[in-house]
Amino acid sequence: MNAPVSILCDFDGTISIRDMVAAVSLEFAPQGSRALIESIQRQDMTVRDGVTQMFRLIPADKYPDMVRYARERTVLRPGVFALIDYAMKNSWKFSVVSGGFDFFVRPALMPVASFIDIYCNRVRARDGFLDVVWPYGCDDECNGGCGLCKPAILRKNRAAGYKVVVIGDGITDLKSARLADYVFARGILADRLKDEGISHTTFETFHDIIREWSSSEAEVHQYVG
After folding, report:
1. DSSP state of 3
2. What's the rounded Cα separation, in Å, for the pair 38 and 22?
3. Alpha-carbon distance 205 to 14, whole Å?
4. Of the candidates 210, 179, 172, the residue with the CA atom closest to the CA atom of residue 94
5. How far apart are CA 65 and CA 6, in angstroms?
6. Which of 7, 128, 133, 175 has the smallest number of Cβ neighbours within 10 A?
7. Is residue 163 part of a domain?
């Protein structure tokens, strides 16, 4: 019997067209955020440290404006709900594993929220500025600094007997992609996996992933249209 499948899918830049963490930070703390984002991308700074510092630059009274800004500008990559439907019909587990925040991740996924697992962070007010709350920290096998630890979530799924597929686009997906049974990648993640010789399939929309998985042309048309 084949092992059950668990899909771990990134949100920012993967499900959403834009990286909303970066977009929000650049809008509400433009002077300090760009350098921090670049440091994270170069891996000169951990994700946890960089994102924490970015949001500490944003006054807490800007939170309602930030929520409105993010929700108005979150645009989903075509086919994500079709892929979730496809996974459900195959009895696969689908989890959104996001280094982003509940105030934009959960509203964007509201139509399918009851059918999937959502892992993300949140913010709170502290001393007049925003403070990041990290509910899903690193486990003992991780070298730390993830913020939301995608490898730890992957290991929990594997320990439960799942074959794990990672879908992502960025540097924050690299650790889990190295551990996955298979990877669908785009952007920086695809470039890094190619450099490291790690097998993966590139994609632009989630319809591409359905096409890759589908066993028949008729099944593709059911989901892609």
Report:
1. P
2. 10
3. 9
4. 210
5. 36
6. 128
7. yes
Beta carbons of 166 and 177 less than 8 angstroms apart: yes
The Cα–Cα gap between 109 and 119 comes to 12
Spatial neighbors of 50 by CB under 8 A, at least 6 apart, are: 36, 37, 39, 40
pLDDT, tens digit, 9 for 90 and up, residues 177-216? 999 999 999 999 999 999 999 999 999 999 999 999 987 6
Q: Is residue 143 in some structural domain?
A: yes
CB-CB contact of 54 with 36 (8 Å): yes
Residues β-bridged to residue 126: 129
Q: Is residue 115 part of a domain?
A: yes
Kindly report, residue by residue over 2-59, the tens digit of the pLDDT: 789 999 999 999 999 999 999 999 999 988 999 999 999 888 999 999 999 999 999 9
Angstrom CA distances, 174 to 37, 65, 118, 131, 168, stand at 16, 32, 19, 25, 8
Residue among 60, 57, 69 nearest 18 (CA): 69
Residue type, 158: R
Encoded tokens for 7: 């899909």
Count the residues in the chain: 225
Q: Is position 62 within any domain?
A: no
Q: Based on the structure, what is the number of domains in the chain?
A: 1
Residue 86: CATH number of its domain:
3.40.50.1000
> For the whole model, what pTM was predicted?
0.93
